[in-house]
Design brief:
Blueprint (H helix, E strand, L loop, with lengths): L1 H53 L12 H10 L7 H17 L4 H17 L1
Amino acid sequence: MIDIIDSILKYVSLVTVAGAAISFVIGLLKYLDQRAREERTKRYELFHELMRQISAVGEKADEGIPLTQQLAAVYELQHFKEYAYSATPILEHLRGFYVARNAPAVLLKAIDDTLLQLRSLA
């Protein structure tokens, strides 16, 4: 009878340790999933902020954002490989738009360089 109780107590302690380990692993997986979601959300917001900067054009030549900021935003898009599928057609459209508005050649080159980089990812 004592042997049976000892066996049961041995298994109870084993189940307790296993339960704690499983609980820890589940908590860790939830934490990692939450961090990945937060990172995706931040990258999504940054991508859209870059697209706003790239497409910012005022009614007059001196309106909008400075050219250097637009250039930086265009080149920064090269780091958003996960959005290449949507950035490519948008940049193609903006390139045509900027050509029609006689945009500086440096902006068109930045768009061309970024398009080349994004297309190589597809």
